[in-house]
Amino acid sequence: MEIKVDASEIKKEKSDVVKSLVEFLKDKTNADVSADAEMVTVKGEGDAVTKKYIKVLVKKFLHQQELKESFRVIMDEENTLKVNERRLFEEQE
Fold first, then answer.
1. How far apart are CA 49 and CA 33, in angstroms?
2. Residue 92 pLDDT greater than 60, yes or no
3. Confidence bin at 1 (pLDDT 50/70/90)
4. Where exactly are the structural domains of the chain?
5. From 72's CA, which of 6, 12, 34, 81 has a CA 20 to 30 Å away?
6. Does domain 2-83 have CATH number 3.30.1360.210?
7. pLDDT > 90? residue 78
8. CA pair distance 76, 63, nearest whole angstrom
């Protein structure tokens, strides 16, 4: 199974975050993880490479990097996850 993670939004925030995400996913899944520009690709078999599990891992990564307040993980198209910036509504006085 192959799952892609679109990290283009967090790359704007921190430049080295994609490399850190690749290392984090390699450690947790023991799968073949590669990155080109803003896309991280996870290839592997079994329970370690399900779309739901990768989504949980990306959420954990965002929490560790203290980016969970600013970003969220959504299911994009088939076998693709996208990290989107949260829309923060300003309080009106």
1. 11
2. no
3. confident
4. 2-83
5. 34
6. yes
7. no
8. 20
